[in-house]
Amino acid sequence: MAETHPFRLRPDEVAERARKFFGSGGLGLQLVSNEAGRLRFEDARGFVELDIRADANNQSRVTFQYEGFEREVHEFRRKLAKQAAEETRSSE
What we know:
By secondary structure, this protein is of the alpha+beta class. It has helices at about 10-20, 70-90; strands at about 1-5, 30-35, 40-45, 45-55, 60-65.
């Protein structure tokens, strides 16, 4: 499944949070690709791939492709949206 969502975070912030959430410090998935705005995590159950692109005003547009991790991807999206909203409020 693939879906695209905008976030009020810079691409590097999204990538850093994805590595923490899906990688060894979080779900423990193996990072098998980390190049040019694309991250891919895998394990025996499936994969999560993020294609992170810069958008206007230090924002990002992230395309998620995944298999076997639907709940986890939705949780990560909620966390990103919440963190972005908190950072927006604190910078005003």
